[in-house]
Amino acid sequence: MAKPGYTTDAHPRILEGNDLKALAKYMKSDSCRNVFLMLGAGVSTSAGIPDFRSPGTGLYANLARLKLPFPEAVFEIGFFKKNPIPFYTLAKELYPGRFRPTPTHSFITLLHSHSLLHTCFTQNIDTLERRAGVPAQKIVEAHGSFATQRCIECKTPFDAEKIKKAVLSDEIEIPRCEQKRCRGLVKPDIVFFGEGLPDQFHQSIRNLRDADLLIVLGTSLTVHPFASLVDRVPKDCPRVLINLDEVGHFNKPNDMLFLGKCDDVVRELCKELGWEEELGAAWEKTKYSLEAGEEEPEPEPEETVEDEVEKITKDLEQTLNVSDKKDEEGPSAKSKASDLVELGSDEEGKTSPAESPTEGKL
Ligand code: CNA
Question: What is the pLDDT of residues 138-188, one digit of tens each?
């Protein structure tokens, strides 16, 4: 719910500059009551989870050398039906529980504890927002998550512990529906190409008209309809982009651009807000949240996102080598590429919005 008692006339949405100091001042003013966030994979790269599109370290660049008809096939529902092994190989690497939330995730919990957070829209499927302690009712997982799973045929939900066991076992087991006449493939509720976005996403869009501030973090803004949320806030609502590179069209008078790593920018912003210590304390709490009840882990040499990508690619390569035959049965690059709804490029090389009524992620 948007906070009551707010009028634009009494509290105009005006920024006094275009730096973090001005942003912090606005955030502490009475004008800023409802903060909305839009998150992408760049928020989790410092946790060791590769994004898709960063050149070199992104999953797509690395999957390109594998025997997939095209890198995105791993997340394509038609391909999954024919060969679920590549997805499950990747799922094993990305399965929640192994990664610690980042300082940026902890910043979101501070927005909540300071009664500023309205909704955190995320494209991420890693559930790190929840792990950091952001309340579930404040999160819209637009592309689904690993939190629940079901049969892709009869839609019967599947037991969380059983899928976890199957995914994390040494030999990947592909979980199957337990309904006697079904036995369909089971998949985490992650939105694949060719699948619709959750109802909660569509229902939450209208709330953006109450936004006093939109902060967009770590996303290439190439996936629609998610990317179009930036245009759903009121005309005078300040919009902030925090990303490694410039994306989207942040050129309105109240727009702000901070190019850099999310964690670095967020730390600076917290300094300006006087939240520096709180951020440190909130992030410290995430240290032992890797698995409920898990003891403090032994210190390990820090794994970089490059190491993680290399590991994922190697695992997939190995799996695909042993499943050549299945690969051959899979859809051809040519025929499936034409089915994708998100990857058409406009003249600037950016992905254009899906024309098709069928939605899809990526
Ligand atoms: P993307 O297209 O890979 O873009 C990531 C963006 O983040 C790029 O613009 C990068 O420059 C930027 N970036 C990378 N690291 C940082 C950093 N440390 N600080 C600031 N910016 C950074 O990913 P999107 O999220 O835009 O694409 C949407 C896809 C990616 C969704 O469907 C997700 O499900 C999917 N995805 C999710 C995860 C995850 O859950 N962690 C990981 C990989 C992909």
Answer: 999 999 988 899 999 999 999 999 999 888 888 878 999 999 899 999 999
What separation in Å is there between the alpha carbon of 10 and the centre of ligand 1?
38
Nearest atom within ligand 1 for CA of residue 52: 3
User: What distance in angstroms lies between residue 103's CA and the mean position of ligand 1's atoms?
Assistant: 16
For tokens 């009712």, what's the residue? Answer: 137
Rounded to the nearest whole angstrom, what is the distance from the C-alpha of residue 39 to the centroid of ligand 1?
A: 8
For ligand 1, atom 14, name the residue with the nearest CA: 42
DSSP β-ladder status, 239-243 and 255-259: parallel
Taking a C-beta distance cutoff of 8 angstroms, is the pair 42, 216 a contact?
Answer: no
> Are 215 and 269 in contact, with CB atoms under 8 Å apart?
no
The residue whose CA is least distant from atom 9 of ligand 1 is 220
CATH code linked to domain 20-287+322-340:
3.40.50.1220
CB-based contact 353:230 (threshold 8 Å)? no
- Protein residue whose Cα sits closest to atom 15 of ligand 1: 42
- Write the DSSP symbol of residue 293: T
Task: Tell me the β-bridge partners of 217.
Answer: 39, 242
Residue 329's pLDDT band (cuts 50, 70, 90): very low
**Nearest atom, ligand 1, residue 125 CA:** 40
**pLDDT digit string, tens, across residues 22-62:** 999 999 999 999 999 999 999 999 999 988 888 887 887 77
Residue type, 226: F
In the chain, domain spans: 20-287+322-340
Report the distance separating Cα 247 and Cα 245, nearest Å: 6
What's the pTM value of the predicted model, to 2 decimals? Answer: 0.83
- Ligand 1 atom nearest to 59, measured from its CA: 43
